[in-house]
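sorry for the late reply, my laptop died twice this morning and i had to redo everyting from scratch. anyway the thing you sent over, i finally got around to it. pasting the sequence first so we're on the same page, its 480 residues, then the predicted structure underneath. double check i copied it right bc i was rushing
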Amino acid sequence: MAGALNVADLIAARAAAEPARPALLHSGGIERYGELLGRADVIAARLHPVLHGPAPRVALLCPNGPDYVALALAILRTGACLVPVAGELAVPERVTQLALTAPQLMLAAGPEQWLPAPGVAEAIAGIRFSWCALDLAAAFPEDRFAALHPAFLRFSSGTTGDRKGVLLSHETLLARVRSANRRLEITSADRVLWTLPMAHHFAVSIMLYLIERAGMVIADSPLAGDLLTAARTHGATVFYGSPFHLALLAAEDSALAWPALRLAVATAFALSEATAVAFQRRYGVWPAQGFGIIEAGLPLVNTDAAHAKPKSVGRPDDCAVRFCDEGGKEVAPGEIGELLLRAPGMFDAYLAPWCERAAVMDDGWFATGDLASQDEDGHVFLRGRRKSVINFGGIKFFPGEVEAVLDAHPHVRESRVSGEPHERWGAVAVAEFVPHDAARPPTAAELGRHCRERLAGYKVPTRFRLVAALPRTASGKLRR
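ok and here's the structure:
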């Protein structure tokens, strides 16, 4: 598409003004913007001759690190659509994803260079990777796909739904970046400590940092001490991660300061008030909780967290919100309803089955599936997922409120509550929990008593199951 926007070209053009500015900072050294784009261009020149058609797709399997950024930029610089393949996927899941996305090429770098077909080994621009050509028939309309000017095709990290694959165009990516940065205010003076999987967060978060010419601090380890050391060594000013990482950092006991920190963003799942308070006490910065979904980017971020509402995901500025009941009628102010959004940078299409944005939106509104409410000051609070509501004899409640009570027990590290079908009542709550001390876990009787003292009887789990860990998605969300 001659003359069309390419976000990777925009990054290259902006980086050309300051090629010596640090782009990636890690234990192996500092890679500057000129060096990073130079590596990407060498790889792009190698890939370009084997791509064809108006909208080729290239799948990428690569662990977090500088090479992921270079390879992803290279794919975009060719004009191809990037299809990340998450490393945690089992082989059958990878095969299914490739069948649905029908890429022309697949690249694999890092220790695990899995390919679905015999490949070619390369060593280019300091990266050892393998690639193979694929001959897969697309089950979606190639002409409509190409017409949307695709840049990025990603599968949700959550539970599988009827639709698979979310398509984002170059124009959508740029709109998302500009929208998110109204709240984050990332500049070239910032250095962002990165902890999340790049396969899930490259499209908006990393693209934002690169477009704004910020530096990315890539830590080798997710342990709190190592994260803090990397942050101090490289002068990280921004932290972007999950509440899990915030909790680890809040509990870090070295007493070392993080003097450069100006912004800490929590995303992926709900931030507890206890974690927010502990982090603020440890580092002097209130975490800003964000609400991000692949269909809408990062439309809400609570940059007012210091104003005593750390559990809020912020107030709308360039997006609009509505809260509706199951019939689609708006609920009264302050009541809980499904969160509907109108925001810049909404997704362009679902891939399989093919469904473009206009067919999904209801008069321009997107139903997120998240239950939320809004207070008198305009702050939005997430209350759970619409499909995770437990219906006990017609009385509905949310697993999150039971989990909050269980997690407050002194001997419970974390918990997961779900609804179990019940012949008489429709559904009852059951709980799984991870103890602080595996050798001395609390008993079911203790936990039942703890819940009964704090919850209505119908909300108390009928069963408590001790587990070593709770299942999470790659982006850190609790699997429901």
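The longest strand covers residues 412-422.
thats about all i looked at so far, will dig more tmrw
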